[in-house]
Amino acid sequence: MRILIVGGVAGGASCAARVRRLSEDAEIVIFERGPYVSFANCGLPYYVGGEIPEEGKLLVASPALFKKRMNIEVRLKQEVVRIDRAKSEIEVKDLETGNSLHERYDALVLSPGAIPIRSPLPGIDLAGIFTLRTIPDAREIKLWIQQRKAKRAVIVGGGFIGLEMAENLTALGLKVSIIEMQNQVLPPFDPEMVSGIQGHLKEKGVDVYLKEAVAGFEEKSSGGAIRVLTKSGVKMETDLVLLSIGLRPDVKLAQEAGLMIGKRGGIEVDQQMRTSDLKIWAVGDAVEVEDIVTKEKTLLALAGPANRQGRIAADAILGRASKFRGVQGTAICKVFDLTAACTGANEKTLMRLSKPYEKVYLHPFQHASYYPGASQMNFKIIFDPADGTILGAQCIGAEGVDKRMDVIAMAIQKHATIFDLEEAEFCYSPQFGAAKDPVNFSGMIAANAIRGDCPVAHWENVKPAETVMIDVRTPEEYLKRHVPGAKNIPVDELRKRLSEIPKDKEILVYCGVGLRGYYAARILLQNGFTAKNLSGGIKTYLNRQ
Amino acid sequence: MRILIVGGVAGGASCAARVRRLSEDAEIVIFERGPYVSFANCGLPYYVGGEIPEEGKLLVASPALFKKRMNIEVRLKQEVVRIDRAKSEIEVKDLETGNSLHERYDALVLSPGAIPIRSPLPGIDLAGIFTLRTIPDAREIKLWIQQRKAKRAVIVGGGFIGLEMAENLTALGLKVSIIEMQNQVLPPFDPEMVSGIQGHLKEKGVDVYLKEAVAGFEEKSSGGAIRVLTKSGVKMETDLVLLSIGLRPDVKLAQEAGLMIGKRGGIEVDQQMRTSDLKIWAVGDAVEVEDIVTKEKTLLALAGPANRQGRIAADAILGRASKFRGVQGTAICKVFDLTAACTGANEKTLMRLSKPYEKVYLHPFQHASYYPGASQMNFKIIFDPADGTILGAQCIGAEGVDKRMDVIAMAIQKHATIFDLEEAEFCYSPQFGAAKDPVNFSGMIAANAIRGDCPVAHWENVKPAETVMIDVRTPEEYLKRHVPGAKNIPVDELRKRLSEIPKDKEILVYCGVGLRGYYAARILLQNGFTAKNLSGGIKTYLNRQ
């Protein structure tokens, strides 16, 4: 059996290795148009910034290793330019010699990846405007910075790569500005969750321009610097531009071969990663996969799913019944001293799909607050109000963020509910958690909301005319900063001051993060008031400002 | 409704607070024989060692806070000495005045906790022999160290508290020796998993005596130092002894009241935490609970389950249907620069219960190995060989250990299988994980074993006469250190050297950690050999030495 694989990074390399482990007899050839296979794409920003000092570190497996350990042939700088489905052949162009040859396949696996988007803006092809996707990309950026003694960088697009590069370019001493079209950085998150990240970027000296788009680029005469022009008329002079506005699946080859392309623009595959051609599979960033939470088709350019898809395709090619279970969008991004991670659906998506959901905010410490180093996280969990099924979660903090999102990722995979989180048993010693872990808390607060023990309200829905807002913190906290229109009745005085509160209006209580508000709401509810707790307290309110 | 609660630490305090949140009308009184309620027991070793500088940090909630926020009365230094079930009364002794009084209840909650075991050894009551369970205990130890200028400590018992205290006393400059009766420290783990912890303790200057028991203590004339005598005849001079040989549930009150006591010596309760008396509930370290993996009754002295039980009891008292789901023994211990964590059943327990299980070992890096700071973990996962249900996991390492065990804790709670771990989607950026996370790897290796793709063998079962052992690492690695009796055929030469391997014997291959062994086993299996991979490679072999 002759298995040809187009693209030798995450998905393709995983598929090739898996095929060999399942079959000693298969002939396996990987065609890679770039100069490397199996490299650590996710390490590129840290190689640019010097955190990863050697380029060689990024090379997970060399062609020589593929050959000697796995008897897999790797052909570098060979681009597959055409698929002849009728003949089960591909046409391969040697990018060094320009020669073409034809290769026959029994099974073909497409792992072409995705291409960084370069909008056709004026000046887009000027020297000094980069994207970052490959080792040569990283090398060029490093060289440019050294040779030009670059002092300033403009990053277009505040997604994961944009923010990782903001940190790494800052580490190299560059003054970084980020231009982002949306009203927030990190689009997989909801905007109120990343306001802290935006503030943190500013603290670290990064200028963040939201709701701002690039109109074009101009070359400045003196020294090759670039002028970035925005649609609102801002002009920025810079030594380097990084475009990180997103990726599009590289479907050219598949499309030209007449394979089905999905609505989102990715290659259509079934659960075994098979395309519309029985002999052709596709994996990785170029394919559309099902989101297990929303059941929608989606594009997700992440290494983990790509690797798993590669394995599934290998299984399928060799007649196994393995199926890809879909994706849930678990992702993480370190931004200077903070980490942002998420899993499952965000609120924006659920709103767009008109799916019913409820949410709660919390701000727990990552470990016992009595132990040194405790720091607060911003945590949001989204769930089905009917049965408590977890739909998604987002968390930002200094430490322990990855742990909580991985736990919830596992929970979502198993269709767990917030009631399961309430009862979950996690590691507790003061360095690592608390007797009630943040994940437990998220389940408890959500369960209180669903059971009606403590209904929640959300800041974005507050209608001052129809409600009474009570700040249940201490007078000192209230005086320092409070929400306009809120009356102060400290929770510890509430039982004695119930007569001050109207019974004919909805009472919204809030505190610092939601705990005292919970106590206050319980007192009010049991005394016949209609009360709700403003989820996340004033901390979430401030995140929304 | 009058609800009396005996014991005001984790379970009792949680129960009281929950009752109040559910009922403004209930009269709630907590009786606590000690001087504090709701303190952070788990922080005591770090208070002794100075990591937590102020005693006040350990106090989670004061009686004053209970009163003003929750309208809960806390009576300190009041010991409940008798339950009169017929009259629904308790007799309470004021430990300061000696006076007794009777208090009527509608519902009684027992949260008496557990008592550190003090074996009746000669000299056990000498000054300078401590246990650590309460704030006064910690204060006494600190004072003793200061006043006596203690330089040496002997810790009897190498469990969680023993090891945490070894670290903290070492931090204070004491030379620490640990005496442990079993052949390992940290009894919730299997012995081969903690050999690295034992080595690490030695590196940090702690002497560890395994399979050694204390025979008695003698006072040394000069300066009040203590001589510890062991059963094997060792004599150790020390300035301080910490007994940390375990806890027994404090069931005196319950037993004298005629409540049912279980086989493990704890108070018997149903899923609603109700004892054999309809008006009496019990929670925390004193009760027997069901282990969700083994279905056995067990004692588990941990704060997380105690808190959850307190909530369940409160719900039950107020007529709610909440049920305690049982425990799975998720626990963690930091030992100097290493962390050990586990969840679910260990191998010792499964063996004792004659439950069928399989296991695999792995030694993955906690994050991408190309990113600085990567360090290897010792990871073991135990599963049902019939259907892959996860039964337990143990992990030791420098970083990321808590995360992996929390994820698997969640998986076990949801009855997940190793196949679920294979397909799980976790956070990946190079600081936090890898495209294939250690948890994914554990699932993949286990799945390979179950599916027969790569059957595993274990070092403890190797029978040299019946098998051929092949070390598939490089000659350099082999020469440096190999397992006696193993022949060296590097994996990359294996395809060419198959003729050197007998077809009529079982072939056991091993490498460094198991990955090359996997490749080698696949090559052999597909070429008609009977081959197994020695799980965890030479690293696991060395852990067993």
Structure description:
- 2 copies of one chain form a homodimer.
- The model of chain A has no long low-confidence stretch (mean pLDDT 96).
- The first copy, chain A, contains 15 helices and 30 strands.
- In chain A, helix 1 packs parallel to helix 8.
- In chain A, the strands form 8 sheets. The first copy, chain A, has a 5-stranded parallel beta sheet with strand order 3-2-1-7-18. A 5-stranded parallel beta sheet of chain A has the order 9-16-10-11-12.
- Chain A has 4 domains: 182 residues, FAD/NAD(P)-binding domain; 117 residues, FAD/NAD(P)-binding domain (3-Layer(bba) Sandwich), CATH 3.50.50.60; 115 residues, 3-Layer(bba) Sandwich (FAD/NAD(P)-binding domain); 88 residues, 3-Layer(aba) Sandwich (Oxidized Rhodanese, domain 1), CATH 3.40.250.10.
- In chain A, strand 19 and strand 20 form a beta hairpin.
- Chain A is globular.
- The first copy, chain A, starts with a strand and ends with a helix.
- Chain A has 545 residues and is of the alpha/beta class.
